[in-house]
Amino acid sequence: MESKVVFSGISLPSLQRSSSPLLHSLSSPSVKVRGNNPPSYSISLRYCQIKCKAANTNTKYCEEVSEVLDINWDDLGFGLTATDYMYVTKCSEHGMFKKGELQRFGNIEMNPSAGVLNYGQGLFEGLKAYKKEDGSILLFRPQENALRMRQGAERMCMPAPTVEHFVDAIKLTVMANKRWVPPKGKGSLYIRPLLMGSGSVLGLAPAPEYTFLIYVSPVGNYFKGLNLAPIHLIVENEFHRAAPGGTGGVKTIGNYASVLKAQSAAKAKGYSDVLYLDSVKNKYLEEVSSCNIFIVKNKVISTPSIHGTILPGITRKSIIDVARKEGYEVEERQICVDELLEADEVFCTGTAVVLSPVGSITYLGQKKEYVNTKDGGIAQKLYSALTSLQMGLTNDNMGWTMELK
Ligand code: PMP
């Protein structure tokens, strides 16, 4: 007699790749049967294992008891790992985004004349979710990402989700992919919201339709252990990232394609990244390709002020508040490139890099090295204070974290 195993109402022999969130990565399941009174089944899939118990004679109902991901949490880098679900919703040019839905993570279809493909009408965001020891998941200031996306959308002539919609969509997407949130101390789930002109346009104009999409990927700790690995920057003297009146202050996709040339050249010479100067005087610090910059001199912390050409980083804003709370003086002001020579410490901040000390900066062929003190200096103190909050290791008296259960 042929046994029939049912998982969530789906007969195993006819299981389709798309039939279940857990089974989307199914290649060929192996089924082991143990005992016969009643028999228990263990179905091993690529990313998970499902154990089932027979209910009675013909039909056996499955109960999912474990989800074992075939993933080495110690080996995570900052690359894309395909997860289960993405969130998608669309709206028209003058419309409002309706509550979207979760779809299987995968390719999306777009007309070749979509606004985002032809004219770069697109924005993205980036934030992280961390798992606590008790299994709950923490988001860090998602409302700030929502607000920044709204500001960017205004600049790029796009409708944007409300803050509430954005945050709800993030929560839904994270919870649907919760098995991909790395265990405590192993990394985080990187969350990438996208807003794009998906409708077709041929003449230059705002697209007639927009897509708000969120996907996620587990990523590794940028820094292993307590010792923060210093990065090495080169000051870019020819190319500029942004100009007054341009779009440097919003997270539009074009800002990133345009830094690739300088960044690739810097990497080819062994530098970690590029530090940009202002495009008017070519002498004031702006930011790195994907993070903000701080300098420390005599325990006073300074960072370039925000005036439209620098991305207002959420980590930057948080570090300023954390530093002030720890008793440091923090200045937001114009910083001349010459001040790098006098600085005691330099560090960068961003969602991906968290807080990264700078080991050296090269400007016009002259290399300034920053001494890595034994205790890691102010950068280490601020890194610990910020990550303790983000990972739920200390009491969140700033009200910045949002717990998901
Ligand atoms: N500057 C740029 C150009 C960035 O892309 C980022 C990353 N979003 C940052 C700064 C840091 O912003 P945040 O701290 O919000 O990640």
- Number of strand elements: 23
Bound molecules: 4'-deoxy-4'-aminopyridoxal-5'-phosphate
| Shape verdict | globular
CATH-defined superfamily of the largest domain: D-amino Acid Aminotransferase, subunit A, domain 2
Q: Measured on Cα atoms, how large is the radius of gyration?
A: 24 Å
Sum up the structure in keywords:
alpha+beta; 9-stranded mixed β-sheet; 8-stranded antiparallel β-sheet; 31% strand; 8 helices; BCAT-like_N; binds 4'-deoxy-4'-aminopyridoxal-5'-phosphate; transferase; D-amino Acid Aminotransferase, Chain A, domain 2; D-amino Acid Aminotransferase, Chain A, domain 1; Branched-chain-amino-acid aminotransferase; 2 domains; 405 residues
Q: Could you characterize the architecture of this molecule?
A:
- The protein is an alpha+beta fold.
- The protein folds into two domains: 85-220, D-amino Acid Aminotransferase, Chain A, domain 1 (2-Layer Sandwich); 231-395, D-amino Acid Aminotransferase, subunit A, domain 2 (D-amino Acid Aminotransferase, Chain A, domain 2, Alpha-Beta Barrel), CATH 3.20.10.10.
- Helices cover 19% and strands 31% of the residues.
- It has eight helices and 23 strands.
- Helix 2 (142-155) packs across helix 3 (163-176) and helix 6 (314-325) crosses helix 8 (377-390).
- It is globular, with a radius of gyration of 24 Å.
- It starts with a strand and ends with a strand.
- Bound molecules: 4'-deoxy-4'-aminopyridoxal-5'-phosphate.
- 4'-deoxy-4'-aminopyridoxal-5'-phosphate is lined by residues 126, 287, 290-292, 311, 313-316, 349-351.
